[in-house]
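Check my protein:
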Amino acid sequence: MKKEMNNSMLKKYDVIIIGAGPAGLFTAMSINNKNVLVLEKNCEPGRKILISGAGQCNYTNSCDIENFINKYGDNGRFLKPALYNFSNRDTIDFFKTEGIDSIVREDKKVFPSSLKSRDILNVLLNKCKRKSVEIRYDASVNDIQYDKTSRCFVIKAKDHQFVSTILVIATGGKSYISTGSTGDGYIFAKNLGHKIVDTAPALAPVYVENYEFSELSGISFQNISITLWRDNKKINQFLGDLLFTHKNLSGPVIINNSRYILKGDILKINFTQYINNDEFRMNFEQKVFSSGKCNLKTLIRELNMPKRFVDKIMELGNVSDDKICSELDKKSRKKIIELLSNYSMVVQSIGDFNVAMVTRGGVSTSEISSKTMESKIIDNLYFVGEVLDIDGDTGGYNIQAAFSTGKLAGDSINSNEHSKCYKK
């Protein structure tokens, strides 16, 4: 009796969503004819949207939807129903309908034509407002309980308690801690019986031991090959653009594949345009043998290598700038070939959650229906966005996943008749 009395004093909602980021807001605005509350721990919504794309909001990518599946590591197939239910084209059309024109860059990244993240966030907030969604800020959730008798969720947020038939957890991951992403959703999910796949930073730069390219910061290489080695075994190979910074390795080929890289791994970098190291070695040796009095540095420059990088390779190879090809001994030739096509670096660390764009790991997708985003463990419990064990490449794929999973959850909530709390 006492429990029923306490429950009767709680404010009741049909749906409560925890998190006012892209996934949470998109879920909220997709729900029809229900009393919806969004609880946000920050004093303002969408902090991660506002910093996306350096404040310009790269909100999706214009590549073919079929190609999206390959942009999420090993869990891309889980997202297929969500992405096909609400595709990148649907996203672009949605914002256009809401008065936001878009621009598409050569790399297929899509931005609002204003290049202002605030415009994207305002659309989501205005849509929620038109749907009469209630949003409470500075409402950090402390505890969630599931009442099996009433089949309702009781949520404690600061000095308030709320109850709902349906709960959507859209708290994000642990990346960019300053935005409020501190992994709260993992705690809630675990307490509700869900498995959490170990989390780690993703879309992050990689730090290596004895980094020798600090003075080459800003130099980049296009479409080069990097192989990943662990315990003397080749476990992966990546192809893409590499960037030297003052302190670490970056660029899409590093950022997008940081999800696979661990401390102690070895990266072997092929700075040439030859995918096959042996092919490069044979061609380069042939050129050296046939070039005679040609300056070795000039020969390397013909590989379209940046001048400062070539200077550094000569220094690392202990070869003087005036060395001609006919004077290059076998040991030096082998060293130069190794530096150019098989440069080995030992991974010291991956950029932490303060610099990582997304989180690897999260709520196990094996316990979530890919067709609805609903928990397989507790009815009417949904997970959307980065709190799930999904992480996409850089280029608008993660925000698109947030929109798509939010829309799919909203559609599922709309299509199912859920019992009301306390209904006998």
